[in-house]
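haha ok so turns out i had the wrong file open the whole time. this is the CORRECT one, sorry everyone. sequence first:
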Amino acid sequence: MDGRLDDGHTCLPPRSAIVPSARIETAKTSLYMVIDLLTERDLSVHLIKRLGRQIRCHKSHEQ
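then structure:
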């Protein structure tokens, strides 16, 4: 069994099944990086405020 079906196509998940999990992993990684920064530095309040502004700005652009 080498992952092929009877008609010769390889058994790969559709592209849409791959992308979201990769995006989730990327988001998790950046979240962990932010948390590391927040716990390391006393700039946490400044960073949180800046992040909040960026999110609000991004949301207003999406509409």
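Residues 15-62 form one domain.
again sry for the mixup
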